[in-house]
Design brief:
Layout: E1 22-25, E2 30-33, E3 36-37, H1 38-44, H2 47-56, H3 62-73, H4 80-88, H5 95-109, H6 119-145, H7 158-167, H8 178-190, H9 198-207, H10 213-224, H11 232-245, H12 250-258, H13 279-295, H14 300-313, H15 316-320, H16 328-337, H17 345-366
Helix pairs in contact: 1-8, 2-17, 3-6, 5-6, 5-10, 6-7, 6-17, 8-13, 8-17, 9-10, 9-17, 10-17, 11-14, 11-16, 12-14, 13-16
The structure holds s-citryldethia Coenzyme A.
S-citryldethia Coenzyme A binds next to loops.
Length: 392
């Protein structure tokens, strides 16, 4: 009941799995990647290290980190044929739809990466996608803005390169404020993996049919797009702007979210697993204050978010249902401060989640998991005989 699929001994892989990548305790609000607490990684690590950690299971030595980055650089050229697909989209196409299509098209251009078996082939497919995905993600922004495409610059760090491909203008120097790059790096770390969430489960299920990595990840992008999942970060900022336009009366909107006759939900609140504070939300809330302060930005949306959080956390409806802010509640406020358009917020989530999706896909294939085959509880008609047309 409630959509929870129990393990039926008669069927393997009906929706639960064993994984050694991420540990999550929803009651205690604990999140660890390969045993390292998210708070320590957000504070001390960087996204390139975390990508390696998720993929390989250990933090890299300096030598390993250097080799990892050069392996990624080797594959950062995206075929010009992909730009023909990109050009077929109108500038009004949603970036997540464009990203999902372009990611899947990589399968057509890299057929060898389809049914990879050896560890070496899986690693090559992984670094190929880690290299090309941020290029595609940046191109969705350039397309939306009608700007010329930028290409990867392997002299830059992974996050700087992504930022530069999004914002570098022709014949102009791009200012790379370290505060902005650090903030982006931290957000990508916080989104890098999250156990068996909707999009990761989708990637594992699609991949369990031995579908190629790129097409499996493309299905994860589509799942993440949903407003109840990764699409929530865009919905949160739009909600905060509506509350601001409406005079900032947060209690009115908290009451609206409680009204069962109204399908409005407090976006960025609640979680399938966390029945305590999402540890990522705590980190992002603190970072939002620091980053806006350092950048000298006054964003009324942040004040409204804090008041909304306060009002909800004092409200019996939310307290009794253990509804707390999740990763999406504050992240959009930082993305906005970094100059990232609202339509791109879920693309940012996808770039962050990519190493997690890839690591989980490789784990599933390395464990030779059988094809996913969730079962059901049948609630339809009992057996009955056919009725001829004339007797209906
Ligand atoms: C992500 O799974 C992951 O790990 C996901 C993620 C990741 O990193 O991959 O963490 C990323 O997707 C975070 C979630 C982002 N989505 C949102 O913020 C959308 C708003 N949140 C809700 O739609 C909701 O909380 C969900 C979708 C997140 C969870 O939905 P559920 O499982 O239906 O919520 P629930 O079973 O805990 O609900 C219990 C009650 C219900 O009311 P009653 O039937 O008991 O009267 O709480 C209510 C729900 O209606 N409720 C809300 C609410 N969330 C749940 N009421 C108002 N506002 C909300 N946000």
């Amino acid at each position: 009941s409630g959509g929870i699929i129990t393990m039926d001994p008669g069927y393997k892989n009906t929706g639960s799995c064993k994984s050694a990548i991420t540990y999550l305790d929803g009651e205690e609000g604990v999140l660890m990647y390969r045993g390292y607490p998210i708070e320590q990684l957000a504070e001390k690590s960087n996204f390139e290290e975390v990508m390696y950690l998720l993929l390989k299971g250990e933090l890299p030595t300096a030598e390993q980190a250097k080799k990892f980055k050069s392996d990624i650089n080797e594959y950062d050229v995206v075929s010009e044929d992909v730009t023909k697909i990109l050009n077929a989209f109108p500038s009004t196409a949603h970036p997540m739809g464009v990203l999902s299509t372009l990611t899947s098209s990589l399968t057509a251009f890299n057929p060898k990466a389809v049914n990879v078996k050896s560890e070496e082939d899986m690693y090559r497919a992984a670094v190929t996608l880690l290299a090309k995905f941020p290029v595609l993600a940046a191109w969705t922004l350039r397309k939306m803005k009608g700007l010329p495409l930028n290409y990867s610059d392997s002299k830059l760090g992974y996050v700087e390169n992504f930022y530069s491909m999004m914002f570098k203008q022709p014949n102009k120097e791009l200012e790379m404020d370290p505060i902005v790059i650090d903030a982006l790096d931290k957000l990508l770390i916080l989104h890098a993996d999250h156990e068996q969430n909707c999009s990761t489960s989708t990637v594992r299920l699609v991949g369990s049919a031995h579908t190629g990595l790129f097409a499996s990840i493309s299905s994860g992008v589509s799942a993440l797009w949903g407003p109840l999942h990764g699409g929530a970060n865009q919905e949160v900022v739009e909600m905060l702007e509506r509350i601001q336009e409406d005079g900032g009366n947060v209690q009115k909107w908290v009451d609206k979210a409680k009204d069962k006759n109204d399908d409005f939900r407090l976006m960025g609140f609640g979680h399938r697993v966390y029945k305590n504070f999402d540890p990522r939300a705590r980190i992002i809330k603190k970072a939002a204050d620091q980053i806006l302060d350092k950048l000298g930005i006054q964003d009324p949306a942040l004040d409204i978010a804090k008041k909304l959080e306060q009002a909800a956390l004092e409200d019996e409806y939310f307290v009794s249902r253990k509804l707390y802010p999740n990763v999406d509640f504050y992240s959009g406020i930082i993305y906005k401060a970094l100059g990232i358009p609202t339509e791109m917020f879920t693309v940012m989530f996808a770039v962050g989640r990519l190493p997690g999706w890839i690591s989980q896909w490789i784990e599933m294939r390395t464990n030779n998991e059988p094809i996913g085959r969730p079962r059901q509880i049948y609630v339809g008609e009992p057996k009955r005989d056919y009725i001829d047309l004339g007797n209906r």
